[in-house]
From TrEMBL:
Keywords: Transferase. SUPFAM superfamilies: UDP-Glycosyltransferase/glycogen phosphorylase. The keyword DNA-binding does not apply. The keyword Transferase applies. It comes from Tanacetum cinerariifolium (Dalmatian daisy). It comes from the Eukaryota. GO terms for molecular function: UDP-glucosyltransferase activity. This is UDP rhamnose:anthocyanidin-3-glucoside rhamnosyltransferase.
Length: 211
């Protein structure tokens, strides 16, 4: 895996992380107990360090207006009917898999955006498991066990399961959980409480370190 590889004789990402963990007094994570509580406790127990949480830290919702060309394009379709598929700079896809992904989206018969940018592979596998299996705010695309390959039919089946019959499972639960997650992430009181608690914990840690 990428995090265990050494490039040009330099320490791997894993080595650098472990050196940082072993040399610190506490670990700060952009997360919250409500979403990843059991995993945060596990990290703290394994690394023998207190974990201080920053909270979800979600940017304010966009309030500006879309360019007219996008407004005109989106207005052709019903509410919540357009698929937005973006990998940002998060993962590697072969040309063949990009093709299969696009063909799978075409099979749905729904309008879609597909954005693929620079590759950088990190914790996306774990994130997908967390979102699909525990958070239940999405579904995973079926892939081959030996190499993770997926085909257009796999993409189609995954998208179909949450877009075609929205009053049936798993689409019903996914949409309900999306709403709950959105409300939670945009709750300023929750975010402010995390920041207040973080400041208090840092002050307490500083006092213990000095004295």
């Amino acid at each position: 895996m990428y995090i265990f590889k050494s490039f040009h004789g330099t320490p791997s990402v894993f080595d650098r992380l472990m050196k940082s963990y072993n040399g610190c007094n506490a670990i700060l994570i952009k997360s919250c107990k409500e979403m990843e509580g059991s995993y945060i406790d596990y990290v703290s127990n394994q690394l023998k360090r207190p974990v201080f949480l920053i909270g979800p830290v979600v940017p304010e919702p966009h309030t500006g207006e879309l360019d007219k060309k996008w407004t005109n394009w989106l207005s052709q379709f019903g509410s919540k009917s357009v698929i937005y598929c973006s990998f940002g700079s998060e993962t590697f896809l072969t040309d063949d898999q990009i093709k299969e992904l696009a063909l799978g989206l075409e099979l749905t018969g729904l309008p879609f955006f597909l954005l693929v940018m620079l590759p950088l592979k990190g914790d996306q596998l774990l994130n997908s498991k967390l979102m699909a299996m525990e958070g239940r705010v999405g579904v995973e695309v079926n892939r081959r066990d030996e190499d993770g390959y997926f085909g257009k039919e796999d993409v189609f089946e995954a998208v179909k399961s949450i877009t075609y019959e929205v009053d049936k499972e798993p689409a019903k639960s996914v949409r309900e959980n999306h709403k709950k997650c959105k409300d939670f992430m945009q709750n300023n009181e929750i975010q402010n409480k995390y920041i207040t608690d973080l400041i208090e914990k840092l002050q307490s840690l500083s006092h213990k370190t000095i004295y």
